[in-house]
Amino acid sequence: MAGSVHDSTIYSKLFDCGEAGRLFTDSAEVRSMVIVEGALAKAQGALGIIPELSAKFIHRASLELPIDPSGLNAGAAKNGVPVPGLVSAFRKAMEAPEHAQFVHWGATSQDIADTGQMLRLRQLLLLCEDGLKTLLKALATQAEAHADLPMAGRTYGQFATPVSFGSHVAGWGWPLFDLLAELEGLRKSSLWVSLSGAAGTGAEFGEQRDALRAALAEGLGLGDPGRSWHADRGPVLRIAGWLTRLAQILGKMGDDLILMAQSSAGEVRLGASGGSSTMPQKQNPVQPSVLLALARQVIGLNAIMQGAGMPRQERDGAAWFTEWMTLPQLCLSAHAALVTANALVPGLKPQGEKMAEAFSGSQGLLHAEALSFRLARSMPRPEAQDAVKALALEVLASGRTLGEMAREKWPDLDLSGLFAPEEQMGDAPATARRFAAAVAAL
C-alpha cells in the first residue's frame, strides 16, 4: 500500500481529495516558497532595504523560473529544511549574481516555509468554502423535500419520539452552516504572513521590520499579525481545528447513514453502493463508510497537531517536522470528506414505507411521551408518567399496541392525533424548512 491513500493509484478515487491534492505536492510547496521570496524582495526594494533594480529582477525571476523539487532533497536531508537549498537553486537559476545576492535578505527558513504554507492553506479554505456551499444546497434540497416525512427519532440507539427525515438532514446541515459562517474570521485570525528573522526578533531589518512585514503581507494578500509567531502555532492549529470539525460533522452524517441503510432498517437508499466479492445481495454503504473513516483519521491527526503545537524555545525542529508530516494528510482527508459528501447527498432516497414500519413495529411506544403529556391534562405529571410507564410494560408483555391499551384504560381521554406520527413531530418540519431558508439566503 502507498504511504498515503491520497497518493495511491488504487485508493485515490475512493478517498478523493479533489483539487486539494494539487496544493500538497513538492512542486506546489516549492512554487509557494519562491513566490514568497519574490514578494519579499519586491517589498524590500520599495522600502530601500535592497536595491530596487535587484528587487524587480528577483520578483520577475520568481514568477518565471522553475525550480526542480528533486534537486532539494540532499539539502533538506542535511539542513532539516528545504529553504537553504531552494535559495541556492533560485540564485543559480537567476544567472545574475549581482542581483541574486539579495535573495532571502534577512529572512529565515521558517519565514519562507510558513508563509508559503499559508498561501496554500488559503487556497484550501477557498476550495472548502465552495464545497461547503454546494453541499449545503444539496442538504437544503433534501430537508425541504422531506420536511414532513415522519421518521423515528433515536436516542441511545433506541426509539425516542417522531422526527422528520428533513429535520434529521437539517441536523447534519446546521453545524456545516456554522462552519461556513466562521470562515471569514478564521482567515483574519490565521492566514498570516511570517517575517521575523533568525530568532523571531526581526533584528536584521532594523527599524523597518514592522513596515516590511506589513508590505509583505499586503503583497501576498495575507494578514499581518504584528508580531512573530515562529513558536506560536495557533494560526495553524486554528485552521487544523476547523478542518477537523468539518470532517467530524461529515463523519457523523456518514455514521447515521450507515445505520439508516443497514439491512435491519433500510430507511435510506444510497444513490451509489458497493458490492461484495462473494455475496451478490450486498449493497455496501461505501461513501458513508469513507466519511466515517476520514473523520476518525482527521481527529487522530489533529491530536498529533496539538502535541506539535508546543515547540521548545524560539524554534523546535522536532515539533516543526511533526507538523509537516501531519498537516498535509489532515488537510487532504478533510477535503476528501467534503468531496465524498457532495457526491453522496444528492443521491439519498429516503424510504417512507420503511420509516413507517418503525412506528407500527414499535407497538406505538414511540408515542409514549406524548401520551404522558396528554394524560397530564387530567392528573399530575409525575402520576401520568408513572401510569404510562406501567402501561408500556404491559404493552411489551402482551404484544398489543399502546394505542389499543390506552383507549381501554382511559376511554374518556381525548387521544385524537396522538398516534399519528405526522402530527407528533413537533417543530421538526419547521426546523427543516428554516434550515432550507437559511441556506437559500446565503
UniProtKB/TrEMBL annotation:
InterPro entries: AdenyloSucc_lyase_C, Fumarate_lyase_CS, Fumarate_lyase_fam, Fumarate_lyase_N, L-Aspartase-like. Pfam families: Lyase_1. Keywords: Lyase. SUPFAM superfamilies: L-aspartase-like. Transmembrane segments: none annotated. SMART domains: ADSL_C (SM00998). Residues 363-436 form the Adenylosuccinate lyase C-terminal domain. GO terms for molecular function: lyase activity. Belongs to the class-II fumarase/aspartase family. PANTHER family: ADENYLOSUCCINATE LYASE, ADENYLOSUCCINATE LYASE C-TERMINAL DOMAIN-CONTAINING PROTEIN. This is Adenylosuccinate lyase family protein.
